[in-house]
Write a structure and sequence with these properties.
Blueprint: H1 6-23, H2 25-30, E1 40-44, H3 52-59, E2 64-69, H4 72-85, E3 90-94, E4 107-112, H5 122-132, E5 133-142, H6 148-158, E6 161-166, E7 170-175
Parallel strand pairs: 1-2, 1-4, 2-3, 4-5
Antiparallel strand pairs: 5-7, 6-7
């Protein structure tokens, strides 16, 4: 499974904090997603919750952010951050493998940032993202530490999603009809 050891998770979290402090990376990256007020968004693979404050602000009081991860430390970090920042529109969920205890078709946007390269079972993962998205929902996948060519091949080979737009940072997809 893609769940990394606790020590590696802690090092990754620390390095993300440093990059965000020095380069404001997470805010710049988040601003490319196009999240709007009133939407329900899922931050799939939320890790240390580096995007939930921006997501919470973007969706506003009428929207909802669901932070999902398979790692218990990530869930703990996301809950702590949401509580510390008073983010009332954030729910944090622990996924079990590729099973997320959420109803189908709830999200206007599902985004998976800087983690797609770690997925072993691409089809199962993309099927779960597709299940969570509304029929007209957007699924945004960042390459992470792999080439765009590899990202596109995995998505295309799955037959689950179709790429509708590419940016420098990510691909935007919809469910296949």
């Amino acid at each position: 499974m893609e769940k990394i050891p606790n020590a590696i998770y802690k090092m990754m979290s620390f390095s993300m904090k440093v990059v965000d402090k020095l380069k404001n990376y997470s805010e710049k990256n988040f601003n490319t997603l196009g999240i709007k007020a009133g939407q329900t968004v899922i931050d799939y693979g939320c890790g240390p919750a580096r995007y939930i404050a921006n997501a919470s602000k973007s969706v506003g009081e009428t929207g909802k952010v669901i932070a999902v991860d398979i790692h218990p430390l990530a869930v703990k970090d996301a809950k702590r951050k949401a509580e510390e920042l008073g983010l009332k529109n954030v729910e944090v969920v622990l996924a079990k493998g590729y099973d997320t205890p959420l109803q189908s078709g709830i999200a206007d946007v599902v985004y998976a940032l800087d983690m797609f390269h770690m997925i072993d079972s691409t089809n199962l993962f993309l099927k779960e993202l597709s299940r969570l998205a509304k029929d007209d929902g957007l699924i945004i996948i960042e390459d992470g530490h792999q080439s765009r060519t590899n990202t596109k091949k995995k998505i295309s080979d799955s037959g689950i999603l179709k790429i509708i737009e590419e940016t420098k940072k990510h691909v935007k997809c919809r469910k296949r009809a």
